[in-house]
Amino acid sequence: MSSTMPVWGAVALALGVALITQVGALVLWFLQHRHEARQKSAEEWHRNLRWAADHVASDDDFANLLGINALDALDDKGKLSESDQRFIDAILATIPTNMDLPDAPADNIGSDLSDREDYTEVTQTANDSDGEQKEARRK
To answer: What is the pLDDT of residues 55-114, one digit of tens each?
Structure first.
């Protein structure tokens, strides 16, 4: 008794092996592509975080406000790690409350910050002094 594989079995085996390797390669490619996209997104987020932190540390009041609003926008990202959230909070906590800031943006950017009393006072002071500066420029 000799046992031989039928032709259809050999064809099915060859196609099955080829199909399994192709599906495996496709799954690996998909996982790698998804990992690279997440990595690029995280790198861009950290680049934006550095940019915003540099603006917060700037001597220019407008750059400070721009950096604060950028940090606020970065803070609103839903899936922040605990360390990223603490880092942003630490930067925002070190912002002096006595600096003169220009007008806050008209739309919803910075809405979380406007709840803070010190931010509201600083913005109001900045608005008053900004009006005086605009009046002086007109003259």
So the answer is: 888 888 888 889 888 888 888 877 788 888 888 888 888 876 655 555 555 454 444 555
- Would you say 83 and 89 are in contact if contact means Cβ atoms under 8 Å apart? no
Crossing angle of the two packed helices 82-93 and 61-75, in degrees rounded to 10? 160
Band the pLDDT of 18: cuts 50, 70, 90. very high
Query: Looking at residue 138, what is its pLDDT?
Result: 43
In angstroms and rounded to an integer, the radius of gyration of the C-alpha atoms of the chain is 28
| CA 119 centroid distance within chain | 23
